[in-house]
Amino acid sequence: MTLSAELLTNSQMPWKTDGIRTVVQAFPYQGSKRQLVGQILSLFPDGGVPLLVEPFAGSAAISVAARHYGQVGEVALSDVNGPLMDLWQRIIDNPDRLIAEYTNLWNEQLEDPRSYFLKVREEFNQTKAPAHLLYLLCRVVKAAVRYSKNGDFNQSPDHRRLGAKPSNMQARIFEASRLMRGTSVSSESYESPLINAPREALVYMDPPYQGTTDVPDHRYLTGLRRDPFIETLQRAIDNQVSFIISYDVVRDDNKYGYKLPDELGLTHRHVVAGVSSQATLLGKKEMTVESLYLSPALVQRLGGLDIIDTRIDLEPAGQDALF
């Protein structure tokens, strides 16, 4: 009997028992899937994969964790948010320069943090400088980024905090740089990286939720049109691409958007991710239940539906604040 047909124990899946602080997070980012690392890595083929593709990269929490636990060889990050990808490129290629620039920004803010934040935000909207974006992400409330209709970063600062101290940020950036060394980074839409992924690869997607894009206060630089997304998924399925999607989310009795159509033949499972950070911003305490969708090719690689249900669970994860 192969390992994929056996019930794996937690000792064989340390990512399910380690705390979320075990794996470094390069920068704070609302929507990060750090809480789902244990569930998602448990759905990797045994022994890991030679290539992990994240076409909605964001904070790249899954890729960083996969590298930390030795579950992936090469990593390809992409996102339509060009400045965010530039930040990742700087983290990987020149962390010393990034930390030096961040340190200057952090120290210069001390005299008047409120005014200085607005100054840096204005400069970032003109220059898209990676260190400026890092500073802004560390200063905004719960790392809840917001963009105007013309794509300008327009979120306000959390006046209670000055952001991570340079010494703490240096440790995180250097560790993330070490883990992600050699990663391919690009600013592009998701279609090509998904459709053209090799069969031996695994694609993890965390697209913008339907309820967070077509609103006046945008949480993402661009939205996601549902019908073209479904058409692209079908093309990937036809190409026998192995993929996992985190798509809709349920908070108590509320749900953003609609589930993906049954006609795609995806395997759908709900997993509890913990306390909703967005609800926390509104002064509420609600549990977040994430939907995971697995492609037919991945289900086959894992050994079938019965094996999948032994690897994931509905145990809520802790949600300790990092920043």
Automatic annotation (TrEMBL):
<dbReference type="GO" id="GO:1904047">
    <property type="term" value="F:S-adenosyl-L-methionine binding"/>
</dbReference>
<dbReference type="InterPro" id="IPR012263">
    <property type="entry name" value="M_m6A_EcoRV"/>
</dbReference>
<dbReference type="GO" id="GO:0032259">
    <property type="term" value="P:methylation"/>
</dbReference>
<keyword id="KW-0808">Transferase</keyword>
<dbReference type="GO" id="GO:0009007">
    <property type="term" value="F:site-specific DNA-methyltransferase (adenine-specific) activity"/>
</dbReference>
<keyword id="KW-0489">Methyltransferase</keyword>
<dbReference type="InterPro" id="IPR002052">
    <property type="entry name" value="DNA_methylase_N6_adenine_CS"/>
</dbReference>
<dbReference type="GO" id="GO:0006298">
    <property type="term" value="P:mismatch repair"/>
</dbReference>
<comment type="similarity">
    <text>Belongs to the N(4)/N(6)-methyltransferase family.</text>
</comment>
<dbReference type="GO" id="GO:0009307">
    <property type="term" value="P:DNA restriction-modification system"/>
</dbReference>
<dbReference type="GO" id="GO:0043565">
    <property type="term" value="F:sequence-specific DNA binding"/>
</dbReference>
<protein>
    <recommendedName>
        <fullName>site-specific DNA-methyltransferase (adenine-specific)</fullName>
        <ecNumber>2.1.1.72</ecNumber>
    </recommendedName>
</protein>
<dbReference type="InterPro" id="IPR012327">
    <property type="entry name" value="MeTrfase_D12"/>
</dbReference>
<dbReference type="InterPro" id="IPR029063">
    <property type="entry name" value="SAM-dependent_MTases_sf"/>
</dbReference>
<keyword id="KW-0949">S-adenosyl-L-methionine</keyword>
<dbReference type="Pfam" id="PF02086">
    <property type="entry name" value="MethyltransfD12"/>
</dbReference>
<dbReference type="InterPro" id="IPR023095">
    <property type="entry name" value="Ade_MeTrfase_dom_2"/>
</dbReference>
